[in-house]
Every structure is written in C-alpha cells, then in structure tokens.
Design a protein that fits this description.
This protein is an all-alpha fold. It has one domain. It has 3 helices and no strands. The radius of gyration is 18 Å and the shape is elongated.
Length: 81
C-alpha cells in the first residue's frame, strides 16, 4: 500500500477517491492548457482582430473549464469532511 493510500480516510469509499483522482488529473491538464493559452496571448503582437478574438475565446473556454474543475474538487473535498 502506498503512502498516499495510507493517508486516505478509510471511511470514504474507493469511488470517492477515483473521482477525486480523475478531477485532479483533469484540473492539472486544464491548468497546463491555461498556461499554454496564456503564453499564446502574451506572445501575440498586433494581430488582426479575428485572430486575437479566436485566441481570447479559447483562453476564456480554458478558464471556464479550470473554474469548473476547481469547484468540483472543492465540492468533493467539502463533502468528505
């Protein structure tokens, strides 16, 4: 049994931990995508409005996903306490 498994509360079922693991993995992936989108925005010079709008819309979608997964993680953690 790994150290992380030993730290997990025994009274929570494995379904909870599986869901938390998936959410945290998704959150890390979206955070990485956010950082990439942010770098893309910073790298932009003076592009045509359409190109800038496309990058901005992608950035906003990533932020929405990041906010959603963060809220789900916090909800799950609050239910566990």
């Amino acid at each position: 049994m790994s150290a992380s498994e030993q730290r997990r509360a025994e009274w929570l079922d494995s379904g909870f931990w599986d869901r938390l693991d998936r959410l945290e993995s998704s959150h890390r992936r979206i955070q990485s995508e956010h950082e990439s989108a942010q770098r893309d925005l910073e790298r932009l010079g003076f592009l045509e409005a359409g190109e800038l709008r496309e990058v901005w819309e992608h950035y906003c979608e990533v932020i929405a996903d990041l906010d959603r997964t963060t809220a789900e993680i916090e909800t799950l953690r609050m239910c566990a306490t």
